[in-house]
Amino acid sequence: MQEKRKIRILLAKPGLDGHDRGIKVVARALRDAGMEVIYSGLHQTPEQIVNTALQEGVDGIGLSILSGAHNTIFPKMMALLKEKGLSDLLVFGGGTIPPKDRERLKTMGVGEIFTSGTDTRDIVNYIKGVLEKV
Amino acid sequence: MKSKKGLFNPDSIQEIRNETKRWEKEVYPREKERLEVFETLSGIPIEAIYTPEDTAKMDYLRDLGFPGEEPFIRGVHPTMYRGRTWTQRQLAGYGPPEETNKRYKFLLKQGANGINGVFDYPTLRGYDSTDPEAYADAGRGGVAIDTIEDMRILLDGIPIDQVSSSMVTCQPIGNISVQSMYFANAEAHSIPFNKLTGTSQNDFLMETVVAIAPEVLPPKASFKLSCDAIEYCTKYVPRWNPVSFAGYNYREAGCTAIQEVAFVIANAIACSEELIRRGLDVDRFASRLSFFFSGHNDFFEEIAKYRAARRTWYRVMRERFGAKDPRSLALRFHVQTAGVALTAQQPLNNIARAAYHALSAVLGGAQSVHIDAYDEALCTPTELSSLTALRTQQVLQLETRVTHTIDPLGGSYFVESLTNQLEEKIVALLNEIEGMGGIVRAVEKGWIHKAISSEAYEYQKAIESGEMPIVGVNCYRIEDEKLPIELFQVPETLEIQRAKLERIKKERSSTNVQKASDAILRCCEKDGNLMEVVVEGVKAYVTEGEVTKVLKRYYGIWNPPLF
After folding, report:
1. Which residues in chain A are contacts of B136 at CB distance < 8 A?
2. CA B110 to each of CA A105, B107, B117, B474: distance values in angstroms, whole numbers, following the listed order
3. Which of the four pLDDT bands, split at 50, 70 and 90, describes residue A3?
4. B-contacting residues of A 74-93, CB under 8 Å?
5. Phi, psi (degrees; rounded to nearest 5) at B252
């Protein structure tokens, strides 16, 4: 039987927002669920994140934003990914993102937005659901 | 020497012990317990009942005493809230300083008795609003400050010689510029430094452990900046608290109550040692070291935590540093209700949560309190949510009469026993950090980072297993909930800050700016007190970002361990 390649996920925190408890918890939960996780730490520009995604050959990118800067950062990310021919990459996010903005981000191609109070098992199931189907 | 008698007659204790055994064997098992394990949030087992036996070894005069006297466990002031109630210090800050100034005035008019300024992410991290790394976050999470002109606008019309200000500057790298601007602005308004009262956060763990990011200042440099500000205030701004050890933020990142207290005290020990090394007497600065704690969910553990922190600090100051001034021995603290305990689901429930958090802070003897607004898991607080939080303080202070006696839970068998157990565990952890070479080494090694993120993960697992019920999240959920509140929109900030920065850079004297920047670099080279030169620099309209660039050029950058 052929060994299944592990799902590789890049988790990143764009901007200067320091609230990193959530993303670190998610990183450990994804690892415990058998994925390979690359966590960038804080202060990442969208350009740095896209470059890391390219270098690491990841299957998906998760962005955590609790500062309210999501409406600036997600569109920039999506445009950059398109520019680099990575439009197919799964992009999801989390943080303090109001419902109205969640819907708008999804129409731009962001797969899912997880907010405070999310069960990490739902995130795992979501990622596996999308990537294992492919 | 004070007496060392126990609290109770040994014969009575024996009798109580026998009777407790009988009750545990014959009466208690008649009914079944609801849970398999009863324990505090930090994992200390909780018994069904506590009796005099649990406190029998205590000596009242040595271990408890009286308010305003050693060991200060019953309160740091003789009259506590019978004399003066706690300061209602509601956090506020968003957008450009023009907007936050309005919110400060609103809160003061509504009865808040101190300002509590929170700064946006670029300001905390030492960037100007227009920096390519920063622009997306300008005005977010706090107010944007780039130059001394922003500080003037922020405080316009607020009598800072009468109202005390808390400056949530977090990291030393942001603090050094912001605090300098505050003092230089006071000087420009002819307010003498000895009239200024307030606190700045200035905690090096905030830069190197909490909210860690690549390319921050190395721990030793960040620690030096923190100590420079403390030394400066000790010499020139005697009523200012130049550091607030931010246990709150360590807790928000994942710490337990025990780690929260142990880490702040370890940090305060390191600062004290450094200041003594610089030639200051412990009683000159120790009374101005202040502490910042989180008010979390476990009501009694939090009360016991505040009390244990006071006794631990008293013992450290007395036994380790030989402090004599009672003000050096008394741990004073601010409490903010736990942001991490707020839920985005059914946000109005947060009003009840934060009220319980604040009640525990008050029963624990806090000097000032901030109550979180109900919408903080979703956005920056609106005027309505801020006002509701302030009113929650006022209800607690004016209607409940919890202020009428001092340390009302002192003598509770349970609370005293829990206080003793917490103190024991805090001291054990302090010894462990000491064994590693102190807090700066523990940070450099990444030990603290691991300790905190492991606790955060365990906490999340306890929620997901259902072991830790959170109303609205893992029980009593409302599916497809319609948000019952209005959300705050951060006002336009970047363009306003850009226009000011461009104008200031045109108008200021480039010779003076160059001189001031050179002075900062020279001060780094000769290991002088940087606060002294940065205060001069901001007067010449050197921006915060420009100060940071000089510091990073000299000290280099550090990539901390991420887990």
Report:
1. 14-15, 67, 69, 72-73
2. 38, 5, 17, 36
3. low
4. none
5. -60, -35
Residues of B in contact with A41 (CB under 8 A): 212-214, 559, 562
Among A28, A44, A56, A50, CA closest to A123: A28
pLDDT tens, residue by residue, B446-489: 999 999 999 999 999 999 999 999 999 999 999 988 888 998 88
C-alpha to C-alpha distance for B332 and B206, rounded to whole angstroms: 20
CATH topology of domain A8-131: Rossmann fold (3.40.50)
φ, ψ of residue B69 in degrees (nearest 5): -130, 165
Q: Do B137 and A98 touch (CB under 8 A)?
A: no
* Chain A residue at shortest CA distance from B171: A18
Q: What is the pTM of this model?
A: 0.93
Q: Which residues contact B425 (CB under 8 A, 6 or more apart)?
A: B42, B44, B258
Between CA B345 and CA B443 the distance in angstroms is 35
Superfamily of domain B95-241+510-563: Methylmalonyl-CoA mutase (3.20.20.240)
What ranges do the domains of chain A cover? 8-131
Q: Do B377 and A120 touch (CB under 8 A)?
A: no
d(CA B221, CA B554): 10
What span, in angstroms and rounded, lies between the C-alpha atoms of B457 and B143?
A: 31
* ipTM (interface pTM): 0.89
- Segment B54-102, tens digit of pLDDT: 999 999 999 999 999 999 999 999 999 999 999 998 889 999 999 999 9
What b/e string do you get for B278-291 counting C-beta neighbours within 10 Å, with b at 16 or more? eebebbbbbbbbbb
Cβ within 8 Å of B, A 35-74: 39, 41-43, 45, 67-69, 72-73
Pick the residue from chain B with its C-alpha nearest to A65.
B137
Which residues lie closer than 8 Å to B281 by C-beta, 6 or more apart?
none
Task: Check CB contact under 8 Å for A41 and B472.
Answer: no
H/E run at residue B226: helix B219-236
Residue A24, chain B, CB below 8 Å: the answer is: yes
CB contact under 8 A, A42 and B377: no
In chain B, which residue's Cα lies nearest the Cα of A115? Answer: B344
- Extended beta strands in B284-398, E state: 289-295, 333-337, 368-370
Could you give the C-alpha distances from B396 to B21, B90, B329, B354, in angstroms and in order?
A: 40, 15, 28, 11
Query: What is the residue-wise DSSP string for B343-365?
Result: -SSSTTHHHHHHHHHHHHHHHTT
Cβ distance B374 to B488 under 8 Å?
A: no
Angle at CA of residue B297, ends B31 and B306, nearest 5°: 105
Contacts for A22 with CB less than 8 Å, ≥ 6 apart: A64, A66, A94, A95, A116
What is the distance in angstroms between the Cα of A87 and the nearest Cα belonging to chain B? 23
The predicted pLDDT at position B212 comes to 67
CB contact under 8 A, A43 and B343: no
Name the residue in chain A with its Cα closest to that of B475.
Answer: A117
Query: How far apart are the CA of A122 and the nearest CA of chain B, in angstroms?
Result: 10
B457-470 burial: b if 16+ Cβ within 10 Å, else e: bebbbebbeeebeb
